[in-house]
Each structure stands twice: as C-alpha cells, then as structure tokens.
Amino acid sequence: MNIDFTRFNEFIETFEILELIELVFLIAIIVEAAWDIFTGRRKKGETFANFGIALANHLLDRTLYGLVFVLGLFVVENFISWRIPLTWWSWVLALILADITYYWMHRWEHEIRIFWSYHSVHHSSPEYNLTTSIRLAWIEGLIEWIFFVPMILMGFDVVQTLIALAVVLIYQTWIHTERIGKLGWMDCIFNTPSVHRVHHGTSRMCIDKNYGGIFIIWDRLFGTYQAENEKITYGLTKQVGSVNPIIINFYELWQITKDVLRSKRFSHALGYIFGKPGWQPNGGTKKY
C-alpha cells in the first residue's frame, strides 16, 4: 500500500496561505468576542464554551482525527489506477465538487439522526456570532472523510481534495454573523450571512434549509433554499441548556441511546438511529 505524505510538500505555500487566512479569521473572532462581552451583547458562558470546544477540536484534528481523515482517503486512493491531472481546470472542478459534496454531507447530517448527533453541536448555540463557526463536534473528523471518498474514486488527488475542502470550510467562518445584513444578488448565488442565519434558525421556515458551503445554488437546485424573511431565533428546537463542552458534544448521542434502550422493537431502535431527527414510531415527531 502506497501512502506518500511527501506530496504535501508540493503544496506548502498553499497550506501557508490557508493558515494565514485562518489566523486572520481567528483574530476577528477574538476581537468580536471581546467587544461583545465588554458591551454586554452576548453571554460569556456560550463564548467560552465555543472556544473550549474549538481548542479540543484543533488538538484532535492536528493529531489523531486528522490522521484518520488523511489516511482514510489515501487508503481509498490505492484502489484506483487512474488520476485526474493537477491543472487549473481540475482545481476549479475539485472546488465545485467539494462544495456539492459538502452540500449533501451537510444535508444528510440534518436528515439522518446518527449524523445529527454530532452536527447538532454546531447548531446548539442560542447565539449567532463568529465563535459559532468554531463550535464543531469533537468526533466529526472521524466520520466526515467518508463523504469525500467519491472524489478520490473519481481520480482527484488526495491533497487537492483536502485543499478544496479546506477552502469550503474556511469560507464559512465569515458568514456566522449578525453584523452583515442582506447582500442583494449575492444572497442568490453564495452562502452569505443572511442565508446562513436562516440555516441556524429554529422556526418552521428555517429548519432543513440552506445547506450550501460556498454556493447556495445547490439549495436552489434541490429545493432547500429559503430567504431570510423574519427575525431568527437560534439554536435547537429543544435547547441543550448547558455551556459544558462535554455535555454539548454528547447530548444528542445520549438522547439517541435513551431512545434505543426504551425501544420495544428492533425496527424502532433503527428508526431512532437512522431516521430523521425527531422520528417517532407512531409517525409523529418530537423537538430536536
């Protein structure tokens, strides 16, 4: 099995640029948080929880989880003999495919409860600001690489795929804000603060809408687009009610466990795990 990590060396400058952009965003996140806390605009507990979750996530992604993510894609690459060349058009195509892959990954994370068990961490904050963008589940790095296997099977280079995904993820930092209003035509094409505020809303209008990464055209194409037409209430329909990072990360997984343990039928247990969040055996739904 051939796993050539030296290929990362060819893209050192690209990774340095991405890390510089991340650093700029981190400074913006810290400055906004400090100002909001100083002016009483937000609660300290939620902000500290977001930073605590992000710190642990960063350590995991730079060690064990990051290794699993990269190794998983490299292993898959060994099963194919064809490669898409590294050209300008393949980079454009890789970014587009990474974005549409992100759309479907994101959508399934909302529609399949076992995936929602970790993605709900990002949605659990009742506040919406730049720190919300770094409130990401500790276990998602162990799972999300699987969604990008098709790109590798198509022949895209592993490093190219990782860079394309990184661009999609980094882009989304700035859209977690209430300080930027509607942006006109941009809201129809790109994922913008207005578009993403809807995605984080708890009302019927907002739920399961606007899954896009960079482009919102996928939502328009697949019928999940919703414009911002009302004041948004953020969080979950049933709030976690805690700022403890451990509780926040494993709250929904614990809810699934309790539902499975009290299931009277095996099919009910499967429904609680793989059905939509809120699924009930009687055909009803509960808040999630």
List the helices and strands and how they pair.
Layout: H1 12-39, H2 44-61, H3 64-77, H4 88-111, H5 113-123, H6 149-154, H7 158-171, H8 186-189, H9 193-199, H10 217-222, H11 245-261, H12 266-274
Question: How would you describe this structure to a colleague?
Answer:
The model has no long low-confidence stretch (mean pLDDT about 90). The longest helix has 28 residues, at about 10-40. By secondary structure, this protein is mainly alpha-helical. Helices cover about 55% and strands about 0% of the residues.
Compact summary:
The chain is mainly alpha-helical and 288 residues long. It has helices spanning 12-39, 44-61, 64-77, 88-111, 113-123, 149-154, 158-171, 186-189, 193-199, 217-222, 245-261, 266-274.
